[in-house]
Amino acid sequence: MSSSFSSYANGLQPAERHAYLEKLKLISCAHCPYEIPKELWKQGNECNKFVPKITSSDIFIYLIETKCKEITGETAQAFKGLAYESKQAVRDGWIKSFICLVLHSGVVLVKAKVCPSQALGTTPHRPWAAIGKTGNVILANCTCAAG
Questions:
Q1: pTM
Q2: Percentage of the chain surpassing pLDDT 70?
Q3: Domain housing 86
Q4: Domain count, the chain
Q5: Is residue 64 part of a domain?
Q6: Which PANTHER family did the record assign (predicted)?
Q7: Three-class SS string for the chain?
Q8: Which end of the chain, N or C, is surrounded by fewer C-beta atoms within 10 Å?
């Protein structure tokens, strides 16, 4: 699988690379999402029929309950502005592209380019997430410092 890794994955430290590989195994993804050819992905509004409905609760559970607890050992109380801020980021043009790909397992990968709001001239971050059939966020990754 390492031959399919992007320069992002190859640039990770060994422990981080192992964790990234485990993420890909968890969703039965044989290739790094950063290396899957662009022509295989659906773009923009085409994604509407493939991406399950994701609620702010789904995002909250993943980011605040799951991911934050995994990192700090406790949950964060940052739900209040989540729905508004995410919609505002789209309206303000911080999201530069949105694409999706359905894996054989039925998991949907979503990928975007997101401009960092605090550093206007920098390269956009490239987050991706694996979404389950019911809209649950299985896992996510980003090229930003927070990962």
A1: 0.76
A2: 66
A3: 39-141
A4: 1
A5: yes
A6: ATP-DEPENDENT DNA HELICASE (PTHR47526), PHD-TYPE DOMAIN-CONTAINING PROTEIN (PTHR47526:SF3)
A7: CHHHCCHHHHCCCHHHHHHHHHHHHHCCCCCCCCCCCHHHCEEHHHHHHCCCCCCHHHHHHHHHHHHHHHHHCCCCCCCCCHHHHHHHHHHCCCEEEEEEEECCCCCEEEEEEECCCCCCCCCCECCEEEECCCCCEEEEECCCCCC
A8: N
Task: Tell me if 101 is assigned to some domain.
Answer: yes
Tokens of 56: 């702010």
CB proximity list for 130: less than 8 A, separation 6 or greater: 26, 27, 29, 107, 108, 109, 137, 138, 139, 140
Is 72 part of any domain? Answer: yes
Instruction: Identify whether 147 is part of a domain.
Output: no
